[in-house]
């Protein structure tokens, strides 16, 4: 039989944390609606992992395991909170978020948006700057003056970017380049 | 487990189709999700606001990542030692350790501002003031013992009670740093912004006008009842409606009392010339200038005026002074500005109170227009 789990060492453990921590917090927040509590939930899940020291070997299975663990911990928390507060609305909300379809759709949103953000973010800085200025409505010539580079460079950089990025990504772009001041 | 792996693979395909074809593949998603969830997914991946929200949250989490790793690592080392030597006892110990550890995290949110002691107060009688804790569920009981309504989370809902034959008022006071909702006995919903108090009858009487009094800012979604006009009194301004949605802002320290109409029709007048009514149309703002004693009407983007309901702070061409007042109320901080140049500088900015704390806000403003500042507890000093 194939060995399906992995003994975790410190280095792997840290890599696991680095790779999944943010997305898992974001995911937990879909249940908790509270970022600080979501962080606590994820932290708790990581502590459990270290205690058990085993984790699925295959990458997708690891992810599946983590998402499921965070879901369970989040729901546990909500239920224990419900025990204390007892409001109908909370119970309705919990029932809704206990559904499998809720779990799966939130996984899709967190996963897909992470991949897209990463893709946009890995464009070279120069390229990003050019696209940003062009989205602001500046002509190639104006961009050339602004960044003191030649117009032909701008054309090639734009081509690289647009080959990767379609118009829909404009919103992602604007987001990553100027998150606070629109 | 198998299903979620398929879902993870689907996520990869969706992001790839957005990156390469500019469109999420609807058919592929339909294989796994019903219509409602499908729309939810697509909306979350292409809607600008949703993207922004998610992105900011990610950044916020990223910020505390290394700090949280350190904590995790520290805790972990102790755990291992006990695991090795104590075996079963260790499990209990770890449980205990984790709990203590979590309490500590909650107690000291690094260098975040302490939550103020100020609370939401509900005055149901002359000497009867109740403290309202957000998120709780409880009955609202009159001095006479009658149940007037119920608090459900962040909202108080008043029941209709035909037994009550005279006007009995309650008063609700929302401190800085908090927002709260009430639903009046006629079904009118009122969202109250930070630093606002409102006085209203626990029950509206048949044949009488529906009248409330407000100091601060609120968004009214008035239940339609053509026989009973609804009047909001704010300082020297009164707004009369039949059924409509509008925002009114009347803080003592502001120079203007502003009414912004979102939907329906309102009549505005003031105590200085009560016969001089101004009719507002949706998308318009009527601002009564307290010192000039004059009302200005102009077309506005209503979104800028009602964003606060969902925790947004939006500034468009706002002077720094104006921004400061709103930040102080919403974050419950006090900002003293000694930088004269900054006072009348104008800013465009947008913050989400649930995502960005006051440190984040100050950092962002500072990036646009650098200045020196210091944050001590909930005092911010700008040099």
3D structure, described in words:
The complex is a heterodimer of chains A (182) and B (383). With 182 residues, chain A is mainly alpha-helical. Chain A is built from nine helices and two strands. Chain A has helices at 10-32, 35-52, 59-85, 88-98, 100-121, 125-135, 140-147, 151-164, 170-177; strands spanning 5-7, 54-56. Chain A has a two-stranded antiparallel sheet. In chain A, helix 3 (59-85) packs antiparallel against helix 4 and helix 6 (125-135) crosses helix 9. Residues 178-182 of chain A have low confidence and may be disordered. Chain B is an alpha+beta fold and 383 residues long. Chain B contains ten helices and 23 strands. Chain B has an 18-stranded mixed sheet that branches. Chain B has a three-stranded mixed sheet with strand order 20-23-22. Chain B has a two-stranded antiparallel ribbon with strand order 19-21. In chain B, helix 5 packs antiparallel against helix 6. Chain B is globular. At the A-B interface, helix 1, helix 2, helix 3, helix 4 and helix 5 of A face helix 1, helix 3, helix 4, helix 5 and helix 6 of B.
Keywords:
heterodimer, A: 182 residues, mainly alpha, two-stranded antiparallel ribbon, B: 383 residues, alpha+beta, 18-stranded mixed beta sheet, 3-stranded mixed beta sheet, 10 helices, 33% helix, 34% strand, globular, RNA_pol_sigma70_r4_t2 (chain A)
């Amino acid at each position: 039989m194939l060995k399906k789990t992995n003994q975790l060492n410190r280095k792997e453990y840290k890599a696991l944390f680095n790779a999944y921590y943010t997305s898992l917090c974001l995911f937990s927040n879909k249940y908790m609606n509270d970022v600080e509590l979501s962080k606590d939930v994820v932290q708790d899940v990581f502590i459990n992992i270290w205690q058990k020291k085993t984790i699925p070997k295959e990458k997708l299975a690891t992810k599946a395991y983590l998402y499921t663990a965070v879901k369970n911990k989040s729901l546990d928390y909500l239920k224990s909170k419900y025990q204390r507060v007892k409001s109908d609305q909370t119970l309705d909300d919990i029932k809704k978020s206990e559904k499998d379809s809720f779990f799966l759709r939130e996984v899709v949103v967190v996963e897909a948006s992470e991949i897209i953000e990463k893709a946009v973010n890995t464009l070279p800085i120069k390229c990003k700057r050019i696209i940003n200025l062009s989205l602001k409505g500046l002509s190639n010539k104006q961009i050339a003056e602004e960044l003191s580079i030649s117009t032909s460079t701008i054309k090639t950089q734009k081509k690289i970017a647009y080959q990767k990025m379609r118009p829909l990504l404009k919103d992602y772009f604007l987001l990553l380049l100027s998150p606070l001041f629109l | 487990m198998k299903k979620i792996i398929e879902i993870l693979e689907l996520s990869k395909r969706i992001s790839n189709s957005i990156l390469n074809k500019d469109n999420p593949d609807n058919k592929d998603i339909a294989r796994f999700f019903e219509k409602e969830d499908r729309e939810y997914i697509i909306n979350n991946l292409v809607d600008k606001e949703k993207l922004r929200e998610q992105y900011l949250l990610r950044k916020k989490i990223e910020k505390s990542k290394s700090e949280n790793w350190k904590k995790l690592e520290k805790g972990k080392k102790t755990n291992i030692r006990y695991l090795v030597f104590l075996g079963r006892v260790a499990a209990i110990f770890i449980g205990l350790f984790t709990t203590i550890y979590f309490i500590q995290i909650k107690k000291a949110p690094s260098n975040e501002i302490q939550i103020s002691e100020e609370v939401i107060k509900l005055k149901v009688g002359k000497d009867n003031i109740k403290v309202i804790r957000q998120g709780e569920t409880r009955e609202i009981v009159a001095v006479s013992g009658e149940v007037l309504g119920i608090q459900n989370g962040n909202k108080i809902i008043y029941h209709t009670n035909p037994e009550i034959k005279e006007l009995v008022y309650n008063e609700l006071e929302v401190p800085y740093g908090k927002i709260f909702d009430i639903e009046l006995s006629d079904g009118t919903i009122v969202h109250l912004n930070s630093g606002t108090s409102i006085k209203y009858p626990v029950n509206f009487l048949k044949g009488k006008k529906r009248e409330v009094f407000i100091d601060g800012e609120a968004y009214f979604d008035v239940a339609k009842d053509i026989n009973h006009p609804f009047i909001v009194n704010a300082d020297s301004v009164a707004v009369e409606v039949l059924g409509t949605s509008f925002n009114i802002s009347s803080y003592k320290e502001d120079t203007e009392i502003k009414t912004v109409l979102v939907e329906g029709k309102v009549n505005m007048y003031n105590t200085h010339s009560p016969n001089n009514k101004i009719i507002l149309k949706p998308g318009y703002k009527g601002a009564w200038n307290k010192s000039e004693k004059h009302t200005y009407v102009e077309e506005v983007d209503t979104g800028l005026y009602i964003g606060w309901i969902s925790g947004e702070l939006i500034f468009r061409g706002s002077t720094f002074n104006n921004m400061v007042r709103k930040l102080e109320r919403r974050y419950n901080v006090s900002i003293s500005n000694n930088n004269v140049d900054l006072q009348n500088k104008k800013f465009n900015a947008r913050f989400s109170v649930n995502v960005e704390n006051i440190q984040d806000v100050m950092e962002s403003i500072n990036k646009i227009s650098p200045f020196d500042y210091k944050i001590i507890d909930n005092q911010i000093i700008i040099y």
